[in-house]
Specification:
- The complex is a heterodimer of chains A (about 350) and B (about 60).
- Chain A folds into two domains: about 210 residues, no CATH class; about 100 residues, no CATH class.
- The longest helix of chain A has 29 residues.
- Chain A has 16 helices and no strands.
- Chain B is an all-alpha fold.
- Chain B has one domain.
- Helix content of chain B is about 75%, strand content about 0%.
- Classes of the chains: A mainly alpha (about 350), B mainly alpha (about 60).
- At the A-B interface, α2 and α9 of A face α1 and α2 of B.
Chain lengths: ~350, ~60
């Protein structure tokens, strides 16, 4: 298996494994939402317990033989505060921000809407928070313990080998299934998104194309082993559109403005949306360049910037549309059929 | 039948997590824990889909 610093696929076994896993994930995504939901529903409770078991079972190998030992060993061997060479030093705030914003593309960028559109109640949206707490706090704590053991044993630091340290074959299976359940809805929603660009293509064809591209991308450890940086960046890139969706759907009607203005006016290019996207990303880049704020922290200020720009430009664009007119159009619910 | 399946599933989950705490308590070796976890995983995935996944036509389109 490639190491954290490798750029290119190093073995035939790695290539075959990635392509087989990619093919299965793509196939499930092609089968559609229901198959994805079924598989994830079954896998979730088991996966969470594997993460917990992995962390607990290896504690004695690190010298933790009672709860009293845990704090001292945690400070001396596990969370020492010394990053690996070439890696960023993560503070408490890095972990907090990253835990909540690592999947910014899904939750704040609104990619989750492809799945949550089937929610029967609005409260289902909170399930994202449960997933983040279990997956990004509990699993990361277990992961920290496992990496500490791998370093102590001078072993390989990669998801598969460290999971094997904790739970053997079941740990390896959990890593594959965790990746699988994460990738499934992503490829599914990517297929839906691409279909809007190529409306004449069947959804399965688009999903197959997306699955093929992502499987080839997954071959390169340069991308996969820097996943934290990658997801932070693509989440940041998608974040402004999530802010636009939020502002358009929730804020504009309360401000006396028309939702889905571009669709209603049959405008192919929405200047407020495009400007919010572009200016926000430029602003985030500027904040990073001037104040040195790392990519993990840019999502939060960026979201407010994007929302403010979109609302301001919508006011400018719809200036002639008074509140009275907006209320008149409120009877027209044709936009609200997603 | 569903009762048997659910019982199997919960035994599978128990085999997944309980051995780890027994290793921590010094009551079980790591090797035994790894074998029990694998058995737990097999038991869970062999039983849970049959009672967790039920057909629900109103749950959303197949799309």
């Amino acid at each position: 298996m490639p190491g954290l610093s490798d750029l290119y696929p190093s073995t035939v076994g790695w290539v075959i494994t990635v392509l087989v896993v990619g093919s299965v994930v793509t196939l499930l995504a092609i089968l559609g939402f229901r198959q994805i939901a079924r598989f994830s529903k079954v896998a979730a409770p088991w996966m969470f317990l594997v993460f917990v078991a992995c962390g607990v079972a290896v504690l004695p190998q690190l010298g933790v033989n009672s709860v009293d030992d845990l704090w001292a060993v945690a400070n001396q061997k596990i969370w020492t505060g010394a990053p690996l060479e070439g890696r960023a030093h993560f503070s408490f705030w890095h972990i907090t921000f990253f835990a909540w914003f690592t999947n910014m593309a899904m939750h704040i960028g609104m990619a989750d809407l492809t799945i949550l559109r089937y929610a029967k109640k609005w409260q289902y949206g909170f399930f994202s928070a449960f997933g983040m707490y279990l997956g990004h706090y509990v699993a990361w704590i277990a992961s920290g313990i496992l990496v500490a053991l791998a370093i102590q044993n001078s072993g390989e630091i990669a998801p598969g080998p460290i999971a094997y340290l904790g739970a053997g074959i079941a740990g390896l299976a959990a890593v594959v299934i965790a990746g699988w359940t994460t990738a499934n809805p992503t490829i599914y929603r990517a297929g839906l998104a691409m279909q809007t660009i190529t409306p004449n293509w069947k959804r399965w064809k688009v999903t197959l194309a997306v699955g093929a591209i992502t499987s080839v991308a997954a071959l390169f450890p340069a991308l996969m082993m820097r996943l934290l940086d990658f997801v932070a960046l693509y989440g940041l890139i998608l974040m402004p559109m999530g802010a636009v969706i939020f502002a358009d759907f929730w804020l504009l009607p309360r401000l006396g403005l028309r939702q889905d203005y571009a669709d209603w006016k049959e405008i192919a290019f929405s200047l407020p949306a495009a400007a919010s996207w572009g200016v926000t990303l430029a602003a985030c880049w500027g904040i990073n360049a001037v104040w040195g704020l790392e990519v993990f922290f840019l999502g939060l200020p960026g979201w407010f910037i994007a929302t403010a720009i979109y609302v301001a430009l919508s006011f400018a664009q719809q200036g002639a549309l008074t509140k009275v007119k907006a209320e008149r159009y409120a009877g027209d619910n044709t936009w609200n059929t997603y | 039948m569903e009762y048997i399946l659910k019982t199997g599933s919960f035994i599978g989950l128990a085999l997944t997590v309980v051995p780890a705490f027994l290793v921590f308590a010094g009551e079980l070796t790591w090797d035994t824990h790894a074998v029990l976890m694998a058995i737990g995983a097999l038991l869970w995935f062999a039983t849970a889909p049959f009672w967790m996944v039920k057909e629900d036509a109103s749950h959303g389109p197949v799309e």
